[in-house]
Every structure is written in C-alpha cells, then in structure tokens.
Amino acid sequence: MKILVTGTKGQVSRCLQDRARDRDDVDLVAVGRPELDLLKPDAIGDVVAAHSPDIVVSAAAYTAVDQAEDEPEIALATNEVGAGAVAAAAKAVGAPVIHLSTDYVFSGDLDRPYTEEDKPDPQSVYGASKLAGERAVAAANDRHIILRTAWVYSPYGKNFFTTMLRLAEACDDITVVDDQIGNPTSAYDIADGILHIAQKVLAQESACHYGIFHLAGEGATSWASFAEKIMELSKVRGGPSAVVKRISSSEYPAKASKPGNSRLSTNKLRYQHSWRTPNWRQASGVVLYKFMNPTE
C-alpha cells in the first residue's frame, strides 16, 4: 500500500511516518514544501503523479487559528484551493483522498457532541477556510474520506501538550481555560486510524466508506483538566510539573473565536470503518513517553 501524505513536519504527517517505519505493508512518502506547496496548486498534480500513490492523505494545512484572522486570503488559498488541488490530483491518478478537517467548522454552541449530520457554522476565518476545504475536496474527488478531528497533540512541534510541558519547566503555576470542552486527540491515534481506513478502503471499496467522519479521542474534558492530566503524568515520570489555575475564556482573549464545545461523536466512524480511538487519558501517556524518549 503506497501512501502519499502532504506535509512533512506537521503532527499527523510525522506520526504517520513513525507508524509506517514499523510496518512492512506500508510504503509512505511525505512531500512538503518546496516540492509540494499548497499555495502553488497548479504544480500539485505533477507532484502527486510522479509518486503514483494508491491513496493520498491530505494533511498539510494552514493551522494558525488566530493568525488566520489577519491573513484570510492565505488561509483560504491554502485550506480551500490547495486542498481541492490535492484531491483533484489524487483523482487524476485513480486514488482516493483522506482529508483532515477540524471541529472549528462548528460554532460550538450545542450541549452535546457534534455528529456529521449537524450543520457547520464556523465562527472564525480558520474554521471557514477548513469548511471551504471540505467542500472543495468533495467536489474534486468523489472517493473522499474527510476526517474531522479536534484538540490534536503529539510529541512534535508546538501544540497544547508540548506547550504545557515547556511552560512547566519555567513556571510554578499555569493559567488554563476551563470553560471549553472537547476530545483531546493524539496524532498517533489519527495516524493509526488513517492507516486502518486506507487499508480497508483499498482492500474492498464500498460507497459507505466515503464521506465525512469524525475521528477524535474517546472521552471529553476541558483544557484545564487536560493540562492537569499532563502535569500528573509528567510528575510521575520525573518530568516538569506545575499547578494548573483555572480561568474562563473571557480571561484569555484571542483574535479568533474558539468553540466552547468541541466534542465530536465518533459513532459513524466506528460503525462504517470499525475504528475507535483510545481514551484520551491512555493516549496521553503514550505521547508523553515518546516526548521523553524521542529516539525510541
């Protein structure tokens, strides 16, 4: 199974690369800038064709949520036009596309987990650009799997998990928002889900395999409670730890509106792809181990 994933340094791409190294049945090629640049959509088709993948994972994206408020044109060009070009390039070589999206396509106002049938209502430029990307991908390639996820973290790069650990090295206490809830999702679990779905789709295609699905960690929590779990796990393993002080979103102003409720129901993915992610507490321990032991 040959997989081409867009982006080389993003969390999901790096976790996919890790997982692929442990599997003999996966030939994974990660391509990013300058070879593949989402802001140069006319060149994407040739890049994808040169690698002749069985399936394409569209993971590269503009993800600077607050910065997008000042750069709407770049966010849309990357997340809509670029994503659509990747999907079209996949179709041109006869490959399905797995595209990553986000909980930010929803307003966050519901009092229950969002399902795939709930109407999107993004409240930020980033969310609007990702919703536009979903629609561009679906229009460009009918063999599409759009995976919405939330609160992605990993041992790599700048994310909530690594930020909390680095702050704990310098601070005795950390203030964290407590009135936003969601499903913390390990990028390793996203990578495992993608590999499972890709293998299933390529082995025996069915119309029910395509469409929009939610892939997120099992269980919900607040950012503050997530931070406390990170501190707890780190302290047990001799790593940095700090006291978490809970604050409201109004006490932590940001340019972009953040969903108050980012919970995603994953029932559709479980029923149609037989895939369920681990509980976020379990997954956090796995990520912490990798963060502390990067060479293993």
Describe this structure in words.
This protein has helices spanning about 10-20, 45-50, 70-90, 125-140, 160-170, 185-205, 225-235, 265-275, 280-290, and strands at about 1-5, 25-30, 55-60, 95-100, 145-150, 150-155, 175, 180, 185, 210-215, 220, 245. It has about 300 residues and is α/β, with parallel strands linked by helices. The chain has a single domain, classed as Rossmann fold (3-Layer(aba) Sandwich), CATH 3.40.50.720. The strands form four sheets. Strands 2-1-3-4-5-10 form a six-stranded parallel sheet, with helices on both faces. Strands 6-9 form a two-stranded parallel sheet. It is globular. The two termini are about 25 Å apart. The model has no long low-confidence stretch (mean pLDDT about 95).
Q: Layout of SSEs?
A:
Blueprint: E1 2-6, H1 11-21, E2 27-31, H2 44-51, E3 55-58, H3 72-92, E4 97-102, H4 125-140, E5 144-149, E6 152-153, H5 160-170, E7 173-177, E8 181-182, E9 185-186, H6 187-203, E10 211-214, E11 221-222, H7 223-236, E12 243-247, H8 267-273, H9 280-292
Parallel strand pairs: 1-2, 1-3, 3-4, 4-5, 5-10, 6-9, 7-12
Antiparallel strand pairs: 8-11
Which bin fits the share of residues in helices?
A: 25-40%
Q: What is the typical, i.e. mean, pLDDT?
A: 96
Second CATH tier, the architecture: 3-Layer(aba) Sandwich
Largest sheet composition: 6 strands, parallel
Low-confidence spans: pLDDT under 50, at least 5 residues? none
The spatial strand order of the largest sheet comes to 2-1-3-4-5-10
Please state roughly what percent of the residues sit in beta strands, choosing from under 5%, 5-15%, 15-25%, 25-35%, 35-45% or over 45%. 15-25%
